[in-house]
């Protein structure tokens, strides 16, 4: 069988300060054991290399936490090892998540020299009051300065992460954030609604969020502004200029494979017999670094009956969907496993009636959770 494309996710689990809405595996630390962690990452990668099955990496994504807390030399060492052990394809996309409040601007040129060719700034908002409410350590002015320095360092592919539906946020304020982002002329904007997740400060002490009607008005207005600014929506919360979609995230949504290294990282691998393996690494940084403990914390084979829902919950996030042939190619299921469920979703106006594609309608995208619930019951 032909194995799907392969990416690599590298998790850096430290932050200067944990944001109250964040449910990611991130930890505040007075001292970061950077060199020890890089060495552990290299060992972790060496152990996972055989799962690549000769496939080059189409993307590398440094996420966190705050990867920009690490020096350029550390990022360079990880990328050198990834290229040596597995290899990069000719169009590899290498993304580094960056907090405008921690980016050492001189270091941006170092990241670029190391091979990073895409920067993702966690801006969230340009409004000072909202940044304070969100617990961010940067100001709107620092976000603008960091963006300018990234351009000066030679980056021609920049993403800005923005959130909307913030506590006490009006529609006018949300629109102002989008317009400010557009004024910077990035290549990509991730614009998503704040949600309250378990195991966060906001979950235990919920802030007052805008009413549903306001949230919907913000969504519609923001999408119109982004479209007028030349940004096409290609996923529920992702907008880009032509040809600038996030290659790494597209691989997730298209049910490609990815290795995951670092504390708490997850991976998905298609094996030569067609079975799907999901695995995850030790979550706590101290345990991940402990010499007597393995990096792996667990793994499981995805049951065939679960693969329909897993495939569709990713593919239907994409506004253009995916070719239907990928369903049989990237799961252990035949096309016939889709027949009844797809017919019902088409009948309800939630999926496009196209034998060649799996694609949600505008209504299906708006009510994606309902669409997936119907699939799970099929």
Care to describe what's here?
By secondary structure, the protein is an alpha/beta fold. Helices cover 39% and strands 22% of the residues. The strands form 4 sheets. A 9-stranded mixed sheet has the order 9-10-8-7-6-5-4-1-11, sandwiched between helices. A 3-stranded antiparallel sheet has the order 12-13-14, with no helix packed on it. β12 and β13 form a beta hairpin. The model has no long low-confidence stretch (mean pLDDT 95).
Describe the secondary structure blueprint for this structure:
Layout: E1 6-12, E2 14-15, E3 27-28, H1 34-48, E4 57-64, H2 72-85, E5 88-98, H3 105-114, E6 118-124, H4 128-133, H5 140-152, E7 158-164, H6 171-184, E8 188-193, H7 201-204, H8 212-228, E9 232-235, E10 238-240, H9 247-253, E11 257-261, E12 266-270, E13 276-281, H10 285-289, E14 296-301, H11 304-315, E15 322-323, H12 325-330, H13 339-347, E16 357-358, H14 362-366, H15 368-376
